[in-house]
Q: What sequence folds into this?
């Protein structure tokens, strides 16, 4: 198996996610982009597991899915709390803390 | 295992939350947390006497640095819980919102405040977070390291958003911390994937073996190391990944700020040391230049921006960034001396930071804590003991002789010097001198300027908080005059098991 295409795809997904966090102003979209980055890492782990012929990488991928789910719980709680207070989920509106 | 004790106490705390009548909850939770920390500390002492081992089929290393940092984290967390449990300075409650889900300014919140409902979820969250912090420096493979990172971070994000006063600021701090923290841990994970791709294993010792054998592709490895460094340097608040620190430290409830400033830094440095010394020690010529640059940037930016701050909490935040830089100067030396000096510095830094933030909680006006520096003018004339204690912590942070901060700085600079990082030591000493200026400026402000007409009052805390601050101040002086025992302890602890 040639792992290169999978790794290229993982890197593209990771970059897209990173760009999403930095560029999008909506907290929910930024958060989704973080999840995309985690999934890119998962893809890389599974590809490398296949490449090395051991299952360490697949185990990691399972754990990452569980952790991502826990992160969604915490993240959505915080975003919903902010949205209820301010009626907006934009990252730009949250700017009370400035130098 | 101490970690199991703390984490199961967290689980029991959740059950208490569900089944205990509201009246008894607060006292039960506090007692549970304190008992668990004492039990965990006893366990750590017991383990420290035994031989080092790698437990849980190779995933958790119980060695000197891990046990030293775990012990320090448990002690600091114990004192933090005493501060969390403070109920006298806020009329009819503690520092946390009665219910984090109620809307700020709503009828629901008013009723909860009137009924003096106490929020007790903070204690189980703290226990989980401390469990993660204890696992972080002990993690012997990349998977466990990532899990520990998340277990310590996720409860902290929530704790940041729970302040009783200034809830909008607090919620905003939680959002920022969460988004940036999740972003950084994604970097760590992607880096871990690359290193796994290089070495074919996530175990630190096998990564080291693969490095020696030079089996894989260098490009993968270097990219992976860089990405993982981003994730860990974010947690310790090093420049250029420090942007979250001042905002989060300012917005979070001050007790939580003290807790995370002290304990998170200990845990994250422990993990950083283990990763770079145990797994990537063979690659040091490649990562040392990067760490040099980060250390210099961290010291300079931390100190220079701290000079311009007008808010006490933000000033302490930038000073904690600068401290991360001082610790990194020793980090690049990669030897036992560096390791023991970093362990000592972390312990003393944790004590003085926790104490300083606890003092900040006591200076209050009608709107809650008076954190603007102008309001601290003349505080020394109104309550000399409190101001003197804060002054002591500031002097220790500045590294004035006879305080623990001086010994800490001396040991890390000495380690960096022995390790051949002379330019770093020069930058460190220069920035320390500049730092002394702004710490002393605050002391001058407190003691030698006229009190403001409508200045803040100093709340009278419960005995627990008083004891906590007094112990912190005493430890700062004692470790400054007699650092020997703790230095010896750090020296004996400073060997990683492989």
A:
């Amino acid at each position: 198996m040639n792992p290169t295409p999978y790794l290229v795809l993982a890197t593209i997904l990771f970059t897209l996610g990173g760009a999403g966090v930095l560029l999008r102003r909506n907290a929910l979209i930024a958060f989704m982009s973080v999840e995309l980055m985690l999934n890119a890492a998962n893809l890389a782990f599974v590809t490398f597991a296949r490449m090395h012929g051991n299952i360490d990488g697949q185990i990691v991928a399972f754990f990452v899915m569980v952790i991502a789910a826990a992160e969604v719980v915490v993240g959505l709680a915080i975003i919903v709390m902010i949205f209820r207070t301010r009626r907006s989920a934009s990252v730009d509106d949250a700017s009370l803390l400035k130098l | 295992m101490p970690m199991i004790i703390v984490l199961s106490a967290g689980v029991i705390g959740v059950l208490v939350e569900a089944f205990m009548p509201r009246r008894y909850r607060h006292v039960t939770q506090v007692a549970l947390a304190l008992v668990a920390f004492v039990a965990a500390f006893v366990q750590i002492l017991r383990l420290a006497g035994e031989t080092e081992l790698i437990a849980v089929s190779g995933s958790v290393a119980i060695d000197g640095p891990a046990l030293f940092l775990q012990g320090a984290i448990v002690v600091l967390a114990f004192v933090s819980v005493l501060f969390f449990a403070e109920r006298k300075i806020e009329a009819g409650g503690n520092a946390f919102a009665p219910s984090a889900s109620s809307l700020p300014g709503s009828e629901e919140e008013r009723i909860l405040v009137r009924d003096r409902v106490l929020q007790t979820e903070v204690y189980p969250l703290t226990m989980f977070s401390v469990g993660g912090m204890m696992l972080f420096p002990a993690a012997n493979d990349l998977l466990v390291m990532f899990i520990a990172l998340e277990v310590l971070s996720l409860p902290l994000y929530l704790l940041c958003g729970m302040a009783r006063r200034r809830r909008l600021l607090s919620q905003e701090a939680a959002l920022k911390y969460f988004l940036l923290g999740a972003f950084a841990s994604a970097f760590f994970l992607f880096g871990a994937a690359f290193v796994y791709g290089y070495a074919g294993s996530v175990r630190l010792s096998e990564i080291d073996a693969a490095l020696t054998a030079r089996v894989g592709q260098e490009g993968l490895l270097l990219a992976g190391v860089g990405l993982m460094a981003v994730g860990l340097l974010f947690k310790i608040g090093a420049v250029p990944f420090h942007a979250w620190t001042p905002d989060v430290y300012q917005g979070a409830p001050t007790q939580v700020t003290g807790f995370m400033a002290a304990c998170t830094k200990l845990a994250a440095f422990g993990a950083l040391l283990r990763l770079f010394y145990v797994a990537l020690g063979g690659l040091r010529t490649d990562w040392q230049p990067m760490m040099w640059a980060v250390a210099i940037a961290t010291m300079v930016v931390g100190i220079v921006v701290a000079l311009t701050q007008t808010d006490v909490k933000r000033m302490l935040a930038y000073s904690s960034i600068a401290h991360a830089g001082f610790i990194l100067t020793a980090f690049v030396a990669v030897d036992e001396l560096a390791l023991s000096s970093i362990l000592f510095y972390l312990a003393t830094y944790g004590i003085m930071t926790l104490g300083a933030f606890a003092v900040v909680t006591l200076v209050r006006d009608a709107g809650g804590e008076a954190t603007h520096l102008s309001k601290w003018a003349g505080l020394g004339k109104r309550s000399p003991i409190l101001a003197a204690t804060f002054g002591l912590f500031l002097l220790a942070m500045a590294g004035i002789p006879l305080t623990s901060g001086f010994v800490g700085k001396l040991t890390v600079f000495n380690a960096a010097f022995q390790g051949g990082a002379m330019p770093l030591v020069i930058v460190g000493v220069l920035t320390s001198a500049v730092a002394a200026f702004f710490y002393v400026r605050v002391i001058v402000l407190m003691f030698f300027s006229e009190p403001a007409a409508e200045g803040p009052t100093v709340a009278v805390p419960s005995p627990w908080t008083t004891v906590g601050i007094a112990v912190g101040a005493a430890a700062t002086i004692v470790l400054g005059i007699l650092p020997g025992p703790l230095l010896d302890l750090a020296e004996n602890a400073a060997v990683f098991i492989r």
About this structure: The mean pLDDT of chain A is 88.
